[in-house]
């Protein structure tokens, strides 16, 4: 009974994880607006209750992935302990260094340990076919909601058809949703902002692409088309680059398989047909939108005029300066901001309201994002922590490629999905500095499941 409860909560967590467009629960900190996290937390609590009753839990301690992850967690703690003097004196935005470490470390434990163990215990009694089809179905249903919402938002935001806004407002009655328009020329769908929508699309892209491998009929292309359209209209530069890179990987997979090579041709024909229809009905709007997307990818060219780019590159530059001063062990987990705020370059802060009103404003409690997990870890955990994370990334991709080469059926399809997911999510860490990326930990749990020929529950 308990297992059924936390399994149901797990799938609800997957369905609701992109839903963060609501006020949220403040005391949950980073997870306050994460609807999916609420179900996963409840699922983990039921798992703990099962442990109390049965005295059993599955912990994949023999897995190299789990071992590397554990070493990383330990090093994050050690690097902070080695900097205890500075950590204890750090203070900014009404938050002390020790308090900041506890909150950040606990957030890492929730995503990378508690949720990971929940995923593993859900998977231990599921065969690979169940894992593939049930997870994909949960993501598909959320994509349906995101697509309907997104389509209505496109009509309002891109084409100015405000008469459909009352229909869009009906989504206010949907759980964990408060209807907002991201802004003229951008959509966020069921997510809070376009970048969060992009993370969701990057996470599920491989799963939706896989319909082409397993299903029949023309409808199997629809999930892929939905992913591409939502990515395009989201206005997220990173999302556009990463999702199309994932699509390139998937296209390569199809082209190498004689059974699916023809789909590459069909997909190209379908894309050009859809694009032609859009040009016929509203060519000026589509051409303008496409031009803006291409221009937005010129990060260097936009650096002078794009506030967002200036902030991102400025934050990353400051983190690297902190790393140069503390190259071996860093300044302690969660401590980046206390040190990097003295290294913000003038070219990033000059005429940049984000620094004046938010990042350097002591009265705004939210901490400035590092905008890059890799530069953040270099600053906080030094080269040692950075190399541990790289080891995890390298092993994950290497093991996934081995499974692709040496397996068939559901195991091979899951391996394809993992390769696409890892590629997108690890690249996405170049522009976001949080471990609260559910797709990575989910993919790692699936990879550990694929690595086990026989599943046993540890006493």
What portion of the residues fall into strands of 2 or more residues?
under 5%
Radius of gyration: 22 Å
Number of helices: 20
The general outline is: globular
Helix-and-strand structural type: mainly alpha
- Distance between the amino and carboxyl termini: 19 Å
Mean pLDDT: 87
Q: Percent range for helical residues?
A: 55-70%
Biggest sheet, open or closed, and with what strands and sense?
2 strands, antiparallel
How are helices and strands ordered from N to C? HHHHEEHHHHHHHHHHHHHHHH
In the predicted model, the low-confidence regions spanning at least 5 consecutive residues are 454-459
Question: Strand order within the widest sheet?
Answer: 1-2
What layout of secondary structure does this protein have?
Layout: H1 2-16, H2 35-54, H3 64-82, H4 84-89, E1 91-92, E2 95-96, H5 97-123, H6 128-157, H7 165-168, H8 194-209, H9 211-214, H10 222-234, H11 237-256, H12 261-296, H13 299-302, H14 307-325, H15 336-340, H16 346-349, H17 353-359, H18 373-406, H19 409-428, H20 438-450
Antiparallel strand pairs: 1-2
Helix pairs in contact: 1-2, 1-6, 2-5, 3-5, 3-18, 5-20, 6-10, 8-10, 8-11, 8-19, 10-11, 11-12, 11-19, 14-18, 18-19, 19-20
Quick gist of this model?
By secondary structure, the chain is mainly alpha-helical.
Written account of the structure:
It is a single chain. With 459 residues, the protein is mainly α. The chain has a domain at 124-271. It is 69% helix and 1% strand. It contains 20 helices and 2 strands. The chain has helices at residues 2-16, 35-54, 64-82, 84-89, 97-123, 128-157, 165-168, 194-209, 211-214, 222-234, 237-256, 261-296, 299-302, 307-325, 336-340, 346-349, 353-359, 373-406, 409-428, 438-450, and strands at residues 91-92, 95-96. Strands 1-2 form a two-stranded antiparallel ribbon. Strand 1 and strand 2 (95-96) form a beta hairpin. The radius of gyration is 22 Å and the shape is globular.
């Amino acid at each position: 009974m308990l297992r059924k409860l936390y399994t149901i909560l797990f799938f609800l967590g997957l369905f609701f994880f992109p839903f963060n467009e609501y006020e949220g629960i403040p005391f949950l900190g980073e997870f306050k607006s994460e609807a999916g996290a609420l179900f996963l937390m409840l699922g983990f609590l039921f798992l703990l209750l099962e442990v109390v009753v049965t005295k059993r839990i599955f912990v994949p301690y023999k897995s190299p992935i789990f071992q590397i992850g554990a070493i990383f967690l330990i090093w994050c703690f050690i690097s902070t302990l080695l900097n205890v003097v500075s950590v204890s004196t750090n203070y900014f935005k009404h938050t002390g260094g020790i308090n900041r470490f506890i909150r950040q470390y606990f957030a890492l434990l929730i995503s990378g340990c508690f949720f990971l163990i929940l995923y593993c215990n859900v998977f231990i009694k599921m065969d690979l076919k169940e894992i593939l089809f049930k997870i994909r179905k949960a993501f598909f249903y959320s994509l349906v909601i995101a697509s309907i919402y997104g389509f209505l938002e496109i009509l309002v935001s891109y084409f100015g058809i405000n008469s459909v806004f009352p229909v869009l407002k009906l989504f206010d009655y949907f759980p964990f949703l408060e209807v907002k328009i991201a802004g003229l020329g951008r959509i966020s769908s069921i997510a809070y902002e376009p970048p969060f929508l992009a993370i969701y699309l990057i996470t599920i892209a491989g799963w939706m692409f896989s319909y082409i491998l397993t299903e029949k009929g023309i409808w199997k292309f629809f999930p892929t088309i939905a992913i591409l359209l939502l990515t395009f209209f989201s206005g997220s530069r990173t999302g556009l680059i990463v999702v199309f890179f994932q699509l390139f990987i998937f296209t390569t997979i199809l082209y190498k398989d004689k059974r699916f090579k023809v789909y590459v041709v069909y997909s190209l024909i379908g894309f050009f047909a859809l694009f032609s229809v859009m040009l016929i009905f509203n060519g000026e709007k589509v051409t303008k939108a496409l031009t803006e997307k291409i221009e937005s990818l010129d990060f260097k060219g936009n650096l002078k005029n794009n506030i967002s780019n200036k902030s991102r590159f400025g934050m990353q530059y400051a983190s690297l300066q902190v790393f140069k001063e503390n190259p071996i062990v860093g300044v302690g987990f969660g401590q980046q901001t206390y040190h990097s705020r003295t290294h913000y370059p003038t070219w990033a802060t000059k005429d940049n309201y984000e620094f004046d009103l938010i990042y350097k404003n002591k009265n705004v409690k939210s901490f400035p994002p590092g905008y890059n997990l890799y530069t953040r870890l270099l600053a906080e955990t030094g080269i040692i922590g950075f190399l541990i994370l790289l080891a995890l990334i390298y092993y994950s991709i290497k093991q996934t490629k081995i499974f692709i080469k040496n397996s068939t059926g559901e195991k091979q399809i899951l391996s394809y999905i993992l390769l696409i997911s890892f590629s997108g999510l690890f690249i996405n860490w170049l522009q976001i500095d949080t471990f609260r990326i559910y797709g990575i930990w989910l993919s790692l749990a699936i990879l550990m499941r694929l690595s086990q020929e026989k599943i046993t529950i540890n006493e």
